[in-house]
Design brief:
This protein is α/β, with parallel strands linked by helices. 46% of the residues lie in helices and 15% in strands. The chain is globular and about 50 Å long.
């Protein structure tokens, strides 16, 4: 992948852990300058891990001012914006809808759906001014198949897919491509913890996955490099499933 994105500038939200680190790593390895954004402070560790071409930025993706500031930081540091990865997301509480709370619904939708909307709302004009670019939003296989007890999460990821398709149609003539990555179960800290406390759940997922394992974060990163590069120049408005075949069964 080295050199595919040489000189490009990418913003990655949720870059403090899990899939966000995998995306940031892969883009960086492909030559991009990376703005690693997170709310936790872990973006500092990501930047230290990657190197001098990575700028850590603290931001809450549910806040308009923070989103605008993270994008401004990218332009100020690196001079432009070429790749916008709206990746930050949360699972929320697990409960059937009859036991779920409005607070949980509002929080999940704020981070997973509004956060993506804000990223595109304020990122698109910058991309247009720069002559175009690639938007890569992290959705989920939960946008395509049901995950009982995670109604708000599934709804939010479905929203990400449709927002992405709409923006792809709206801004194709401006040179902007917009696509989603839909990960299956991935080896993030949350899943690693689940594997310790409830190994039977992870074993069950592996059994239901034709490739027989869960994904690694860097595999989502490699998909992001593809979508950010000219290798996918004729791909826009789609949702690429990276799940080892999980939803085929």
């Amino acid at each position: 992948m080295a050199g595919k994105l040489e000189g490009k500038v990418a913003v990655v939200t949720g870059a403090g852990s899990g899939i966000g680190v995998g995306i940031a790593q892969a883009l960086y390895d492909a030559g991009a300058n990376v703005v690693a954004v997170d709310i936790t402070g872990s973006q500092e560790q990501t930047a230290k891990q990657l190197g001098d071409r990575c700028l850590p930025v603290h931001a809450d993706v549910t806040k308009s001012a923070d989103v605008q500031a993270m994008l401004a930081a990218a332009v100020e540091k690196f001079g432009r914006l070429d790749i916008l990865c709206n990746n930050a997301g949360i699972d929320g509480e697990a409960a059937p809808i009859g036991d779920n709370t409005e607070e949980n619904y509002d929080r999940v939708m704020a981070v997973n759906a509004k956060g993506v909307w804000l990223g595109m709302r304020y990122g698109v004009p910058i991309l247009v001014d720069g002559g175009g670019g690639s938007i890569i939003n992290t959705a989920s296989v939960a946008a395509m198949v049901a995950f009982p007890t995670l109604t708000p999460y599934c709804a939010s990821k479905g929203a990400v897919v449709m927002m992405t398709k709409t923006v792809a149609a709206e801004y194709a003539k401006a040179g902007i491509r917009a696509n989603c990555i839909c990960p299956g179960v991935t080896n993030t800290p949350l899943v690693a913890e689940m594997a310790q406390t409830s190994p039977e759940i992870i074993d069950g997922i592996k059994t239901l996955t034709p490739l027989g394992r869960i994904a690694e974060p860097i595999e989502m990163g490699k998909a992001a490099v593809f979508l950010a590069s000219d290798d996918s120049a004729f791909i826009t408005g789609t949702a690429i499933v990276v799940d080892g075949g999980y939803i085929t069964l």
